[in-house]
Specification:
Layout: E1 4-7, E2 11-20, E3 23-31, E4 34-37, E5 50-52, H1 66-77, E6 86-91, H2 120-135, E7 140-145, H3 177-193, E8 198-202
Parallel strand pairs: 5-6, 6-7, 7-8
Antiparallel strand pairs: 1-4, 2-3
Helix pairs in contact: 1-2
Length: 206
């Protein structure tokens, strides 16, 4: 494929210079440029577009009739309509919305996981994924952790940053990295038990 040349429209660059504490003076500079695009070169490959039912969004359709719920999901994911191919799930870590409601006393202790079907937000995500797969069997599920459980982190809190205990600069007395990996794998395993494979797994948010 031949290189395509596109002549850009005039670009106006506004440069603001502070004049006083109460106002600014704007000076306009005009530039013209030519952009060359080689359509034969590939720089990044996308697996598709998608949406998310995280933070309870998937539960909002529960106010609709069963027929309307199906219509919404079909509109989003059917290849003949919306054609979305990625569904991002939140791996919940907050109280009442996680598969690990109680962090073990130490990394060597067994984790007492609960079922995703007993968590309202994730139960909604599971239902959304199951229905979406009916309209798009090639749907890719992206399971992403908003945070590690607070007990795994330097701060002891889910929100507000912090590090996983065991990484550099964590200065913790215990190493929770393997326990966190097991926690993420357990989420994937529970979805697999429901017949849904996870295509992408994210351990960190943004």
């Amino acid at each position: 494929m031949k290189s395509t040349t596109i002549l850009a429209t005039t670009v106006i660059l506004q440069v603001a210079a502070a004049q006083s504490a109460y106002g600014v003076t704007n000076n306009s500079l005009t530039f013209e440029t030519t952009i060359h695009i080689d359509a034969s070169k590939r720089y990044q490959t996308m697996i598709g577009g998608g949406c998310s039912g995280a933070f309870g969004a998937a539960c909002t359709t529960s106010t609709l009739s069963a027929a309307d719920q199906r219509a919404v999901v079909e509109t989003l994911f059917s290849e003949n309509v919306g054609g979305l191919s990625v569904l991002r799930n939140l791996i919940g870590s907050s109280k009442g919305a996680t598969i690990l409601p109680q962090v073990p006393v130490n990394p060597a202790s067994p984790a007492n996981y609960t079922s995703i079907t007993s968590i309202n937000n994730d139960s909604c995500q599971l239902t959304l994924a199951q229905t979406a797969l009916k309209y798009n069997p090639d749907l890719k599920l992206y399971a992403d952790a908003w945070s590690a459980p607070g007990g795994f982190k330097t701060t002891g809190q889910e929100a507000g940053g912090g590090f996983i205990c065991g990484v550099r600069r964590s200065n913790c007395t215990q190493d929770w990295r393997e326990a966190y990996a097991d926690y993420l794998i357990e989420y994937v395993r529970q979805y697999q038990q429901k017949g849904i494979n996870t295509y992408l797994l994210g351990a960190f948010n943004e």
